[in-house]
Amino acid sequence: MDAKLNAIIESMHDEMIDTLQKWIRVPSVKGEAAPGAPFGKEVRSMLDMALADCEQMGFKTQNFDGYIAHADLGEGSDEDALAILAHLDVVPEGDGWKYPPYGAVIENGRMYGRGTSDDKGPAVAALYAMKAVKDAGIPLRRKVRLILGCDEESGWEDIAHYNKVATMPRIGFSPDASYPIINIEKGICRLELHGVLSNEGLQVIAFNNGERPNVIPGRASALVVGDAATVAQAEAAAKKLDIPAEVQLTDKGVSITVTGISGHAAYPETARNANGEMLLLLRELGVQGDLRLLADKIGLDYKGEGLEISVSDGISGYLTCNLGIIRAGEGGVYATLDIRYPVMTNPDMIIKNVSASLPGMRVDAMEVKEPHHVPAGSELVQKLLDAYHEVTGYERKCLYTGGGTYARSLQEGVAFGASFPQDEDLAHQANEYADIEGLYKNIKIFALAIVKLAGKA
User: Fold this and answer.
1) Among 144-158, 241-255, 332-346, 415-429, which is the least confidently predicted range?
2) Are strands 320-329 and 204-209 parallel, antiparallel or unpaired?
3) What is the pLDDT of residues 290-299, one digit of tens each?
4) According to the 3-state scheme, what is the secondary structure of 153-186?
5) In this model, does residue 457 exceed pLDDT 80?
6) Which residues lie below 8 Å from residue 49, measured CB to CB, with a gap of 6+?
7) Are 307 and 323 in contact (CB under 8 A)?
8) Is 227 a catalytic residue?
9) Is 152 an annotated catalytic residue?
C-alpha cells in the first residue's frame, strides 16, 4: 500500500471510533412510517447523521426521500461508478446482552452494540476508506459511490426506490458478510403459514414469538391451560428434551419460557431456535392440530428434511430453513419460514413441497429472491482478492453464503468483508461487537480496493 495512504489511515484512529460510537447509539430499527421517514424516525435520524458526516468529509450526497442515500467521491457516470453498498438499519436488539445494545461500550479492543458488525461498522470503514483516498489525492478514473440503505433487514424497499429514482451502478461490493470474498449468494424464499388452533389436547392460550423472519429467536414464551400438575409435566418434559425452560403457574394459566441461541437465519448451525424448542415441548405436553404439525415437520430441523425440501449442490451447499415468527391464539396460527436455497434449486419446488408437507395449512410466498453468482475469474473478484491478500497475507479464495446482501442488487456485485475468517459471527445475536483493529484493517483493504478498481493506472 502507498505509504502516504497508509499514514493517513493510521491517523484516523480516534475519529473513526468516535463516528462509529455515535452511529451505534442511534437505535435504527425499522419503525412506523412517518412523513419523510418511510422506515421510522430513528432510521431517518440515522440516515441524516450519516449524510452529515459524509458532507463534513467533503463528499457530494443525495438523499432519496428518506429511503436511501448516497455519497460520491470523484466524477464520472453513475452507471460506471464503483458502488459500495452498506446499510444503516439494524435488527431489534433481542435478549441476553451483557452490554447496553446501543451503548457502543469499548472493552478489550472491542466495541459492543447492535450494528457494530452488521452493518454500521463496515459502513464507517468504507466511508473512512473513501476519505483516505480523497485526502491522499489519489487520482480516479471513475466515481466511487457509497450507497447507504435503510431497509436491508426487512423488505429492501430502499433498493426498489433507488432503482426508480436513481441509476444503480453496474459493479461494486457490499461489506456485509465475510472475507475473502463471497461471489455466490443462495436464493431466498420467505413463506407465510396460516392455520388454526386446535381445541383438542393441550390448550394453548397464546404463543406469540419472533420479531423478523431472518432472525433465529433465542427465547420463546407460551401460555397454556393447566394447573400445578401441568407445571410438573412441563418441567419433566423440558428435562427429557434437554430444553432450558422456566415454568410458572399464573392466574391466567401455565407460563412456559424456553431459551435457545439466537442467530441469523442464514447460519442456523450456529444457533438453536427457541420457536422450535417450544413446539417440541408443547408436542410432548399433548398439543394437537397445526402446532403439532409444525412440531412434527419442522421443530429444530433447519435443513428442511421434514418439509421434503432438503437439497444441496456442489456450488452453494445445502438449503437452510428458519422458523422465525409464530403467532398462535384466538386468531389461529401464523408462522414464517425463511429459506435459503442453493443455486441449482427451483423455488417453485420449495413452495410446492412445503404446501404438500403441511396439509390443511395455507402457504403463501412473501418474497422470493433468485440466487446471485459472479464468476470467480472476473476482474472485480480478482482485484478485490488482490487487495485483501496484500493487506492481510491471507488466502485468496471465493466462498458462498446463505446471507442475502445488497451485492445481488448489482449486475456484477459481490460481498466483500467485513469479518475475517477467524472472527466470531454475532450478527443478529446478543453482544454483537466489532474488533476495532479489524475495522482499521478493513479501511486499508477497502481503500486499496478503491485504488485498484477506480484509480487511474
Assistant:
1) 415-429
2) antiparallel
3) 999 999 999 9
4) CCCCHHHHHHHHHCCCCCEEEECCEECCEEEEEC
5) no
6) 22, 23, 26
7) no
8) no
9) yes
Q: Could you identify the residue written with the cell 441449482?
A: 344
Rounded-to-integer distance, Cα 217 and Cα 325, Å:
8
CA–CA separation, 374 and 15 (whole Å): 35
* pLDDT tens-digit map of 354-377: 999 999 999 999 999 999 999 999
Residue labelled with grid coordinates 396460527:
333
DSSP helix/strand/coil, 386: helix
Output Rg (C-alpha) for the chain, integer angstroms.
Answer: 23
Q: Which residue among 93, 119, 151, 152 is the active-site one? A: 152
The residue with cell 441509476 is: 167
Contact 215, 272 (CB under 8 A): no
**Reduced to 3 states, what is the DSSP secondary structure of residue 105?**
strand
Q: Which of 72, 89, 119, 185 is catalytic?
A: 89
pLDDT at 211: 86
Tell me which amino acid residue 179 is. Answer: Y
For residue 32, which phi and psi values (nearest 5 degrees)? -70, 135
Phi then psi dihedrals of residue 71, to 5 deg = -130, 130
- Residue closest to 260 by CA, chosen among 278, 248, 234: 278
Q: Which one, of 217, 214, 185, lies nearest residue 341 by Cα? A: 185
Q: Which residue has the cell 383438542?
A: 200
- Give the per-residue pLDDT at 2: 85
Terminus-to-terminus CA distance in the chain, angstroms? Answer: 15
Query: What's the pLDDT band for 429 if we cut at 50, 70, 90?
Result: confident
